[in-house]
Structures are given as C-alpha cells and as structure tokens.
Amino acid sequence: MIKKILISQPKPSSENSPYFTLEKEYGVELIFRPFIKVEGLTGKEFRQQKVSILSHTAVVFTSRHAIDFFFQLAKELRLTIPEDMKYFCVTETISLYIQKYVQYRKRKVFFGTTGHIDDLIPQMVKHKNEKYLVPLSSVHNDDISKMLAAKNLQFTECVMYRTLSDSFTEDEIQHFDYDMLIFSTPTGVKYLTEAFPDMKEGQVKIGVFGPATAKAVKDAHLNVDLMAGTPEYPSMINALRDYLETENGKQT
C-alpha cells in the first residue's frame, strides 16, 4: 500500500486541486517538493545589465515567473509602468495572471494558443513598431532572440530571475520514508541517484511525466512504475488516480 508520495513540483495554490482530492480518497500523504527554485534578481543586479524598462512599449511573458519578477523589479526600482504598456503572453492562462498586478484590458494584452513563442510572433509582427522587452531566466537559449530578429522586431532580452537547483538535504536523506516518487523532469532523477547511489530497483515506486524523464529513470537502472504524458494518461492526476485505485483502493 502506498502511504507517502513525493511529487517534484510546487504545492498547488488552490484548495480545490485534484491532488488534495486524491489524498482523501486513497488515504495517502502527498509531499510537494520541487527540485528547482526560482528567485528574482535584485534591483542592483538588474541595473548591471543597463536595460531601461520604460524605454519599451511592450513586454513578452513566457511564464508566470516572468510576470512576478517583472512587476517586483519595477516596484523595487520605483518605476510606474505606463497604462498603455502592451503585454504579449505565450498562453491565455499566463495573460490572465497579469490581473494580479494591473487591470486586464483586452486591447493591450495578446496571447498565443500553443505555449510556444513562435505561435505568438505573428501577433507581435502586427505591432512591429513596438519596442519589446523580453524578461528571461538566467538559464535560457537563443531561440527567442533568433525568431524575433528574423522578423526585424525591435526587442531587448534581459535576465530578471535565476533558476537554481535544490537537491535533497542531509536531513531529507536521513529521514527518507517515501513509498513513491513522482518526477516531472530528469533533474529530480539526477538528484535522487546522487543522494542515494545504492538505491536498487523496486526499493521505491517511481512515477514519471514524459519520455525524457522515463529514460533518466531507466538509465539509472531503476523501474518506471507509472508514466504520464502519454495518449492514455496525458495528465499525472489521471495516471496517479488509476495507480492508487489498484494499489490502495478508495479509503472514503
């Protein structure tokens, strides 16, 4: 029977998350523990890039993190973001998150449908006279800059937040008592094998999201007991529910 599961993602902010429903239905304890943490740059660090936020007329957001740290930096730098600033987001969900900081106006918020920047570029081209600011993580590639440059758009990339690894602590290693681990990226698998180099196949149940994470588990000579991100189980919730139904059965 599965009693305690580590899930390598942030704890859901909504009390109505289906993860909490699973806890009650199947009598399990879910511990949300991401292996990557994100922190914003300080105003002093940002100034070193010599980027003027107010010299731009539009901002491109690829994640909620980018929105949070953009407005946090603006506040720290005591900048008043103009009401006519336009926002271009890779998904509608991300665009709606802007409401946390400014009034949502359809005429100044644009979004794509696939979550990829190339889907958003046609809308940006329609506003080719805008001066785009693109907040990024310290870990990024040149894909966005190449695509925007290819369309002759005016843009400035800048780092506003950093992505840091957050491996198992000594205390976590000593008190490791999980029956199952759920990994969404290969990074978590890497930290597991570093913390427990002698872990054997079958010692703990392992669930993964996507083929890349599954490969990392198999390369570590461990077994994949549950897999999501497939046609049968596109979401982890459904995959985990069916797995617990077999292992535990409903407790309520």
From TrEMBL:
Transmembrane segments: none
InterPro entries per the UniProt record, alphabetical: 4pyrrol_syn_uPrphyn_synt_sf (IPR036108), 4pyrrol_synth_uPrphyn_synth (IPR003754), UROS/Hem4 (IPR039793)
SUPFAM superfamilies xref list: HemD-like (SSF69618)
One cellular component term from this protein's GO annotations in UniProt: cytosol
Signal peptide boundaries: none
Biological processes per GO annotation: uroporphyrinogen III biosynthetic process
Domain Tetrapyrrole biosynthesis uroporphyrinogen III synthase: 24-237
GO MF annotation, one: uroporphyrinogen-III synthase activity
A Pfam family that the UniProt record links to this protein: HEM4
CDD domains (UniProt xref): HemD
PANTHER family attached to this UniProt entry: UROPORPHYRINOGEN III SYNTHASE, UROPORPHYRINOGEN-III SYNTHASE
Protein name: Uroporphyrinogen III synthase HEM4
